[in-house]
Write a structure and sequence with these properties.
transmembrane; membrane; single chain; mainly alpha; 78% helix; Efflux_drug-R_Bcr/CmlA; 426 residues; transport; disordered N terminus; Growth Hormone, Chain: A; Sugar_transporter_CS
């Protein structure tokens, strides 16, 4: 018997009950299958974006271009990732989850193989955009599938598992990339991505069933899509969660896009030392995500209050990086507050997703697509800003972090209004 056939099919009568969700019928083994496969799908995007970060200096030398042009290959990936989610999310609300997921993953495999053979930096930019587009389905459809199956606190628990992968993968990917560069050139990294994507495709084909029954799929084409977007943007809590999540990811991405040059060129790290630094920082993400989930699921702390505390931590940590660097604090003046900043980002991921998706089960794909698209779109725009400011110190990175965190504070005060948020259902 296949894994797929052992997973219960979602039924309309289950969905009609507001307190009983289809995922409640899954056994522990079946939930583990979903966590592993959907986690692998979620990781495809961060691995696509970040696995080759340690190779930036190598790309710069091989193609004979400046650092800003190399960073634009990352921007292209983020733009493709964001646009892909805007398309795939609403599409999955109309036709179901499996078809968009499978087709987009096939595109990712093809783009990864072509990127490994790219003759110029310009061709690589285009292929990276296509890679990002192909990876988008994993992020948005995985989140939508979890919302199809779960609600209330079980939704928080499952989202925390995906948030752990989504937050940890961008930090682990450069560690893996630095080790891969020890045994292969930068083109080999793209062959590895193609192989990983192929494995994800096989796992999806055999292990993931359709979670959105025909009765719940949106109809009406453009009008239905406009209605979905209208419902989402009229919900100030959703918009607030959208912005706080995007600003936190922008702060994290400021670190990801800068760190290769900052720690290797400015502080003199080797590729392996750079990877070890990411491993240490990954602990911050793990602590943040898991503690956030524990507080929401076990201690009944509302996700809005998790967001308040974590954004406050990000503001303090980002200001500390800027101030200590300006005062000549050196390597430790950057690394220590940076670790706390990254931990603060980990707190936000599951809390912002739970807050945003809790009231929008009927538009799960569209709601998830906006979360991912705004995260990656805004973060992608931050990369050229840092490149323009230069990477001669930690100050440009921390300046973007400070700006993003302050925008998140504004979103909390004006839109979320924490005291007004209703509690999650059990």
């Amino acid at each position: 018997m296949s894994i797929t056939s052992s997973i219960p099919v979602v039924r309309p009568d289950d969905l009609a009950n507001r307190t009983v969700h289809p995922g409640d019928k899954l056994s522990q083994r079946q939930r583990l299958v979903y966590v592993l496969v959907l986690g692998a799908l979620t990781a495809l995007g961060p691995f696509t974006v970040d696995l080759y970060l340690p190779a930036f200096p190598v790309l710069q030398d091989e193609f004979g271009v400046d650092a800003g042009l190399v960073q634009l290959t990352l921007t292209g990936t983020m733009i493709g990732f964001g646009l892909g989610q805007l398309i795939v999310g609403p599409w999955s609300d109309r036709v179901g989850r499996r078809l968009p997921l499978i087709l987009a993953t096939v595109l990712h495999i093809g783009a990864s193989i072509a990127a490994a053979l790219a003759p110029t930096i310009e061709v690589l930019m285009v292929l990276r955009l296509l890679q990002g587009f192909g990876a988008a389905a994993g992020a948005v459809v995985a989140m939508a599938m979890v919302r199809d199956l779960f609600g209330g606190k079980p939704l928080v628990k499952m989202l925390s598992r995906l948030a752990l992968v989504n937050g940890l993968a961008p930090v682990i990917a450069p560690v893996l990339g630095s080790q891969l560069l020890g045994v292969m050139d930068w083109r080999g990294i793209f062959w590895v991505l193609a192989a990983y994507s192929a494995l994800v495709l096989v796992a999806t084909w055999f292990c993931i069933v359709e979670t959105l029954p025909r009765e719940r799929r949106t109809r009406g084409g453009g009008r239905a899509l406009v209605a979905s977007y209208t419902a989402l943007f009229r919900d100030r809590i959703y918009v607030g969660a959208l912005l706080t999540g995007a600003m936190s990811f922008t702060g994290l991405f400021a670190y990801l896009s800068t760190s290769s040059f900052l720690f290797q060129d400015v502080y003199g790290f080797s590729a392996q030392q750079y990877g070890a630094l990411f491993a240490v920082n990954s602990v911050g993400i793990i602590i943040g995500v898991q503690t956030s989930s524990f507080l929401m699921h076990r201690k009944n702390v509302g996700p809005q209050w998790i967001i308040v505390g974590s954004i406050a931590l990000q503001v303090v940590a980002a200001l500390a990086i800027f101030g200590l660097d300006a005062a000549g604090g050196g390597l430790w003046g950057t690394m220590v507050p940076l670790w706390f900043f990254i931990m603060g980002v980990g707190f936000v991921f599951p809390a912002s997703q739970a807050l945003a998706l809790a009231g929008h089960g009927a538009q799960a794909g569209t709601a998830a697509s906006l979360l991912g698209a705004l995260n990656n779109g805004i973060a992608g725009l931050a990369t050229p800003i840092i490149g323009f400011l230069g990477v001669g110190s930690a100050m440009p990175m921390s300046a973007v972090m400070i700006g993003a965190a302050l925008i998140a504070v504004l979103a909390i005060v004006v839109l979320i209004r924490p005291a007004s948020v209703p509690p999650l259902e059990d």
